[in-house]
Every structure is written in structure tokens, then in C-alpha cells.
């Protein structure tokens, strides 16, 4: 195997946290980064994900919805057609 060296910059805290996780898994940066690069080559794409944590606006809407539901003020539609008719009237 012909090895090549890749140098890149990253945040010191991120590096430390990643090293801790890799140590707990019994891995090192070379193994993790090679696995990632192999996946990149095979799939020819990079997947960016974010945690599914609702923002302040969504949390407020969820609270309001739960409150409406608990107090019986939430409008319930018996059929899809009823809901569609209501939405189209807005």
C-alpha cells in the first residue's frame, strides 16, 4: 500500500472531542478518515446532517398546539376532503 499524508486544519476542541470518541471506539483518525474517504469515493456524495432539534419558533408552535389539543380548541377534520376544503379557504 502506497501511503499519502493529508494535513488539514480543524478546531482544537473538535479534534479533542473526536479523538476521545475514537479512543472509546478503539479507532484512530487514520481508520476513521480512510473509512470516510472510501465511502465518499463509492457514493460520490457528501451527506451533511443536522440534529433534529426544534428551533424556538417550532417549540412555541408545538406548545401552542398541545395547549389547543388539551383544551379541546383544536379543530379536527373527519375526512381529507374537509381538511382540504378548509385549507383552500384560507
Written account of the structure:
- This protein is mainly alpha-helical.
- It has 2 domains: 12-43, no CATH class; 56-89, no CATH class.
- Helix content is 61%, strand content 0%.
- The protein has helices spanning 12-25, 29-43, 56-71, 80-89.
- The longest helix has 16 residues, at 56-71.
- This is RelB/DinJ family addiction module antitoxin.
- Keywords: Toxin-antitoxin system.
- Belongs to the RelB/DinJ antitoxin family.
SSE order and pairing:
Layout: H1 12-25, H2 29-43, H3 56-71, H4 80-89
Pfam families: RelB
Keywords: Toxin-antitoxin system
Family: Belongs to the RelB/DinJ antitoxin family.
Query: What is the N-to-C succession of helices and strands?
Result: HHHH
Distance between the termini: 65 Å
The biggest sheet amounts to: none
If helices are DSSP runs of H or I spanning 4 or more residues, what is the number of helices?
Answer: 4
Q: What spatial form do the alpha-carbon principal axes imply?
A: elongated
Question: What structural category do the secondary elements indicate?
Answer: mainly alpha
Strand percentage? under 5%
User: What is the number of E strands?
Assistant: 0
Low-confidence stretches: none
Amino acid at each position: 500500500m502506497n501511503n499519502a499524508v493529508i494535513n488539514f486544519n480543524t478546531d482544537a476542541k473538535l479534534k479533542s472531542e473526536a479523538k476521545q470518541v475514537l479512543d472509546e471506539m478503539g479507532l484512530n483518525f487514520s481508520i476513521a478518515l480512510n473509512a470516510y474517504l472510501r465511502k465518499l469515493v463509492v457514493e460520490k456524495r457528501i451527506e451533511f446532517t443536522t440534529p433534529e432539534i426544534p428551533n424556538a419558533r417550532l417549540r412555541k408552535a408545538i406548545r401552542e398546539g398541545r395547549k389547543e389539543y388539551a383544551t379541546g380548541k383544536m379543530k379536527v377534520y373527519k375526512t381529507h376532503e374537509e381538511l382540504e376544503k378548509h385549507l383552500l379557504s384560507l
